[in-house]
Amino acid sequence: MPNRLAHETSPYLLQHKDNPVDWWPWSAEAFDEARRRGVPVLLSVGYSSCHWCHVMAHESFEDEQTAAYANDHFVAVKVDREERPDVDAVYMEAVQAATGQGGWPMTVFLNAEAHPFYFGTYFPPEPRHGMPSFLQVLQGVTAAWTDRRGEVDEVAGKVVQDLSARSLALDAPEVPGEDDLAQALLGLTREYDATNAGFGGAPKFPPSMAVEFLLRHHARTGSDGALQMAADTCEAMARGGMYDQLGGGFARYSVDREWVVPHFEKMLYDNALLCRVYAHLWRATGSPLARRVALQTADFIATELRTAEGGFASALDADSEDASGRHVEGAYYVWTPAELREVLGEQDAERAAELYGVTVAGTFEAGASVLQLPGAEAPDDVRARLLAARARRPRPGRDDKVVAAWNGLAIAALAETGAYFDRPDLVERATEAADLLVRLHMDEGARLSRTSKDGRVGANAGVLEDYADVAEGFLALASVTGEGVWLEFAGFLLDLVLDQFVGENGTLYDTAHDAEQLIRRPQDPTDNATPSGWTAAAGALLSYAAHTGSEAHRSAAERALGVVKALGPRAPRFIGWGLAVAEAVVDGPREVAVVGPDGDPATVALHRTALLGRAPGAVVAAGESGSEEFPLLAHRPLIDGRPAAYVCRNFTCEAPTADPAVLAGQLGGRQ
Fold first, then answer.
1. Which parts of the chain register pLDDT below 70?
2. Domain 4-164: CATH architecture, name and number where available
3. Burial 22-56, CB ≥16 within 10 A → b, else e
4. Is the pTM of this model over 0.85?
5. Among 61, 354, 379, 444, which one is most buried in terms of CB atoms within 10 A?
6. What phi and psi values does residue 361 have, to the nearest 5 degrees?
């Protein structure tokens, strides 16, 4: 009989609806039940495409004996971290503080006041490698709860006290200046892997936000070193195993520092961020590789992740069935020499093995290899034949949940990529996703719901990154389409940021003032796999202020960037988007108004040139002269009856021009 999770919208929670564990969703009712029964809460946090979450579910949550013990001695609560990033953030901070590490699945034991007292991640079904079995953990927690309750309460109290003291305070926050950004570049240079590209060791994650900073820094200063690190990192990722050489799109990270073997799950947020990175790299360099990867990644998002409602699904699983019917990580993506021969024949298979790095020994497991492309491009017919053969394999599962923030990132990426490469279909996919967010995720007061699935909106409120990233997507769409309604919708969201998420001295919180009160209000300015809500909000506020002249939004953006001045020079890898936004502040950002009749070839040429400008954070408004949709178009006449472009920054405007070449020179862009 299904448990309470059967009524949820989260694919991850629905995967556990038939477990013998009597799961509850995160709710006040679950903690009331723990209080009534006098038992602790078992909190398990994960997400749909998490490999080890699936493993622990199969080993322990589907085991009748373990489930029976958990049901008798605990109230078991299951949380999808992608639906409730606030819950995940608070308890992950506790896990990391207590154990020195974190990850998913996350396993935490709480009292009825939601105070944590015992922490862990994955636990095996039997003792292994120094770890107790999950059943032993349950028994040990029960013994402590029953026999040493005073110690349990003391630990819980100390943890909550420690977490409560961690709120950030910025005294007189200052905007980062040129020296701060130069120091951040120096810090990234020190951490750069000159042999393999990227930053740090294994596992190696795509440094999307840091690369955006490097590209903006190069655009503003001409730094060859910044551009070289960005370009080499992008090439290494695109030629390695983390990139799907057949179908496009990126896996979540590389398990090694050489970019050879990925963790195979594909996330919407990674692909949205990387699509935009490669499009911006092409804008800076004209690299054919960057163009190909940007377009293939955009097509992956638009086809493989698009939902029936017009939004974009969260992820593809790492696991799928292999030839024997077992669920195996990477089974859909890896190849042996024999499999190549079966599809391509002897001669073409030998050439394909050489091009894609497929060896007899294999680069992954069981003699299989992850496809790489270290040298020449593979012939189109070889790639097409392999892709067609792969399509007949059992496909990885898809998490169809639509997350507002990640769709905002995808909207920005698809809109810009479509505009750069004359792909109106990509702009249309971005517009459809934006329509879905307005229609389904925004209420009449512009409050956002974080998730939806199958056209049904979830119950969880949007967090700061939702408001910021959706606003970012709407602002990009406004610049690309010339439709001012998207600027208006971004304004609604950013007004709510000012009203609900801003604390003292410009600090920002991840949850709204009127959100559910957890044991601590989450607040993290550092990037993870996506830009932090804090710095994403700063970027969107800055762009909106450049569009509208709003001093309130500009001031809020500058105050929020005080944390970048504090952290950027010391930890640039972890605040890359904040550094990218700071580059825009130092550069202006520039405000570009393109006036002219819609569809006029001269207007189109100026608009495209403006969008291809590399000036950090530049905003673009395009439309009829005097249009009320964009404040930047007010009092901007045509030049001798011809379409014209106006470039301004810091209250000073350059002479208007009707020549795309002159405009490109003003913005450091391509034509």
1. 165-172, 669-671
2. 3-Layer(aba) Sandwich (3.40)
3. bbbbbeeebbebbeeeebbbbbbbbbbbbbebbbb
4. yes
5. 61
6. -70, -30
